[in-house]
Amino acid sequence: MNQTRLVPHRTQIADHGQDLFRICGVEFAKTSEMQRQVSGAFLFVVINAHGMLHELSPPDVHALAISMLMDVLNYSPEQAGAFSSNLIDATGAGPDDTMNAIIHRGIDGHRQLTSGQHAGLRANLLEIFEILGDPYAG
Length: 138
Hints:
Elements: H1 7-24, H2 33-53, H3 58-71, H4 77-90, H5 98-115, H6 118-131
């Protein structure tokens, strides 16, 4: 198996994560842990969409989710592994599950990110922070 075949995907996903923060005017150093978790759930959808578009296997997408959590959100490998598993579990949760709801908002976020709808993307992410009682103070 070619161990480097996911490197270009990892780079592109990390770029999407940086783009999300830049477009939304969010400075990573000023985010709370809850805001990082929300951002991770939001970006999880971006990774899944990327995986579908590039016909990647579920284990490859999981590996990319772990790498995004480490590369973009500075999680340790252990934290990233555990949180990525929680995100996968949340995709099957009911509509009352908070992470599942954030993941569904991320579907719109992926469309907004990839189609240049920056004002909508910013409003989408920042509104989640506010709804959860942790508005971004920047």
